[in-house]
Design a protein that fits this description.
mainly alpha, 489 residues
Length: 489
C-alpha cells in the first residue's frame, strides 16, 4: 500500500471519525427530545414512508455512486464526462419515479399499512429527486477520500434537527415534523454539496457511456434491492400484521442501535470501500488493509455491542424514555448481533464491490433472504417478542454465508477473521461477566447502572491493552489521528 494512499486513508479517517463523533454527540440529544415529544405511532408512519423512499432511491441512483468510486478512469476528463452521464440519468429517473408515486399514492399508502395517508407519502417522496441531485457529488468526494468537505456538510445536516425538526415537533406534535424536517435537510445538503464540488453539471450525455455503466451498476442495483428486502421485509410485516405502535417500537429500536454503531461503521465503511477499490489488483495489500480495518473496528464495535446488550435498559431509558421500555430487550439483542454482523459480515460487501464483483454480494443477500423471510413470517404470528428475538438471531446465518463466500472469493478464511478479532471478544466476554455479577449482587438505580457500565468498560480497556498487537493498533491509531489532529489546533 503506497505512502500517498496511506496518508489519504489516515486523513479521511480523521475527518470521518470527527464527523461521527460530532454526530453522536448531537444526534442522541435530538433523538432523546423527539422520542419524548412524539409517539411510537408517529415514528411508525415515518418508518413506512422510509421503506418507500429507500426502495425508490435504489433505482434513482442505479449504482452510479459505487461505479464512480470503484471504476478506474483514463483521466479526469473521462471521470467528469461519466459523472455528467450518471448525474442526468440519476436525476431523470428520480423525477420519473416520484411522479409515479404521486399517481399511485393512495394504493401505495394502503399497501404499506398507512391507509388515508397517500398525500403524506407523495409529499415525503419529494426528497427522492432532491437527494438524487447531490448523490453524484458525494460519490466524487468519497472517491477522492475528501472527507473534510463531507464533514462540513454533515455538520450542517446534524444541526437541522435542532433548529428545524424539534421546533416543528413542538408545533405539529405528529409525523409531519419528521417529514418536513427530512425534506428541508435533503434540500440544504444538496445545495451545499453542489456548491463545494469542483465538478459542476454540464449538458452532455452519452447513451453508449450509460450502457457501459449499466453493465456494472445492474448488479449493484440488484444487490441494493436484495439489501432492501433484507432490511424492510420485517418492517412491512410489522406495519401490516401488528400495528403502527409496534412498528414504531421495532424501527426505533433498530435505528437506535444503528445510531450508536454508526459512530464506527459510518466513519469506516465508505473509506474502506474507496481504499480497497484502489488496491483491487494487489491481493497482498488488499488483505492487509482489510484485516487492519477489521481489527480496529472489532476493538471498538465488539465491546459496544456487548455493552448495549448488558445495559439495554440504561440505553433505552436515556435515549428514548419510559414510553419505549417495551423495546429495551430488542435493543440489547440487536446491539449484540449487530457487533458480530459488522466485524464478520458487514465489510464483506465492501470487499465484493471493491473487487468489481457486486453479484457475489447479491448471492450473499439471497442466501440470507431465503432463510430470513420464512423465519420472520412464522415468528410474527407469535407476537412482538418472538419476532424480534428470531429476527436478531437469524442474522447469524447471514454471517455464516458471508464468511464462506469471503473464503472462496479472496481466500480469507473464517479462522483468520475470528483470530483477528479474538482479543476483542475475550476482553468483551470479561466485560459481560463483570456486568452480570455487578447487576446480580448490586442492583440499583439508573445512576448506579451507569456507574456499572463505566466499570465494565474499564475492565474491557484494561484487558484489551494486555494484548500487544491490539495495544500497538490503539496507540498507532491515536498517534495518526487524534494526537496529530490536536497538534494542528
Amino acid at each position: 500500500m503506497g505512502r500517498e494512499l496511506n496518508n489519504q486513508i489516515v486523513a479521511a479517517s480523521k475527518w470521518s471519525v470527527l464527523s461521527e463523533i460530532v454526530a453522536k454527540l448531537v444526534t442522541p440529544i435530538t433523538s432523546m427530545i423527539l422520542a419524548r415529544l412524539l409517539t411510537p405511532e408517529a415514528f411508525g408512519v415515518v418508518a413506512t414512508i422510509s421503506m418507500i423512499t429507500t426502495f425508490a432511491e435504489i433505482f434513482t441512483d442505479a449504482g452510479f455512486q459505487k461505479y464512480l468510486i470503484q471504476h478506474e478512469f483514463k483521466d479526469k476528463e473521462d471521470l467528469y464526462f461519466t459523472t455528467n452521464v450518471a448525474f442526468w440519468s440519476n436525476l431523470a429517473m428520480s423525477v420519473f419515479i416520484w411522479l409515479i408515486i404521486i399517481l399511485v399514492r393512495e394504493p401505495l399508502a394502503t399497501m404499506v399499512g398507512n391507509p388515508g395517508l397517500g398525500n403524506v407519502v407523495a409529499i415525503a417522496c419529494v426528497a427522492i429527486p432532491i437527494a438524487a441531485f447531490s448523490s453524484i457529488q458525494m460519490a466524487l468526494y468519497k472517491r477522492d477520500l475528501n472527507y473534510k468537505i463531507l464533514f462540513r456538510v454533515r455538520l450542517v445536516g446534524i444541526m437541522i434537527p435542532i433548529f428545524v425538526i424539534i421546533p416543528l415537533a413542538l408545533i405539529f406534535k405528529n409525523f409531519w415534523a419528521l417529514v418536513i424536517g427530512d425534506i428541508i435537510r435533503a434540500s440544504v445538503l444538496a445545495v451545499l454539496l453542489t456548491y463545494y464540488s469542483k465538478w459542476k453539471p454540464k449538458l452532455v450525455y452519452s447513451f453508449k457511456k450509460l450502457k457501459e455503466m449499466l453493465s456494472f451498476t445492474i448488479w449493484s442495483m440488484i444487490e441494493a434491492v436484495s439489501i432492501w428486502l433484507t432490511n424492510y421485509v420485517d418492517v412491512f410485516l410489522v406495519g401490516t400484521m401488528l400495528s403502527q405502535y409496534y412498528l414504531g417500537l421495532y424501527k426505533t429500536a433498530t435505528s437506535t442501535v444503528g445510531l450508536i454503531m454508526g459512530l464506527v461503521t459510518s466513519a469506516t465503511t465508505p473509506i474502506l470501500f474507496a481504499s480497497l477499490s484502489r488496491l483491487q489488483d494487489d491481493d497482498a495489500a488488499f488483505k492487509t488493509l482489510f484485516f487492519k480495518f477489521q481489527k480496529i473496528v472489532g476493538i471498538l464495535v465488539v465491546p459496544l455491542g456487548v455493552g448495549i446488550f448488558c445495559y439495554s435498559d440504561v440505553v433505552t431509558s436515556i435515549l428514548l424514555g419510559a414510553q419505549w421500555m417495551e423495546a429495551a430487550k430488542f435493543i440489547g439483542l440487536w446491539g449484540l448481533t449487530s457487533s458480530l454482523m459488522i466485524v464478520l459480515a458487514h465489510y464483506s460487501s465492501e470487499v465484493y464491490r471493491a473487487k468489481g464483483k457486486p453479484r457475489v454480494s447479491v448471492l450473499a443477500q439471497w442466501l440470507h433472504i431465503i432463510v430470513l423471510w420464512p423465519t420472520v413470517i412464522i415468528a410474527i404470528r407469535y407476537g412482538f417478542e418472538v419476532l424480534y428475538t428470531a429476527r436478531a438471531l437469524v442474522r447469524l446465518e447471514g454471517i455464516l454465508v458471508n464468511m464462506i463466500l469471503m473464503y472462496i472469493l479472496v481466500n480469507i478464511s473464517p479462522r483468520m477473521m475470528f483470530k483477528n478479532i479474538l482479543p476483542s471478544c475475550i476482553a468483551a466476554l470479561a466485560m459481560l461477566v463483570v456486568s452480570y455479577l455487578l447487576n446480580l449482587f448490586m442492583p440499583g438505580t439508573l445512576l448506579w447502572r451507569i456507574v456499572q457500565a463505566l466499570l465494565s468498560a474499564s475492565v474491557y480497556i484494561v484487558i484489551i491493552m494486555m494484548f500487544p498487537t491490539e495495544k500497538k493498533v490503539i496507540q498507532g491509531f491515536y498517534k495518526q489521528t487524534i494526537e496529530k489532529y490536536l497538534k494542528k489546533q
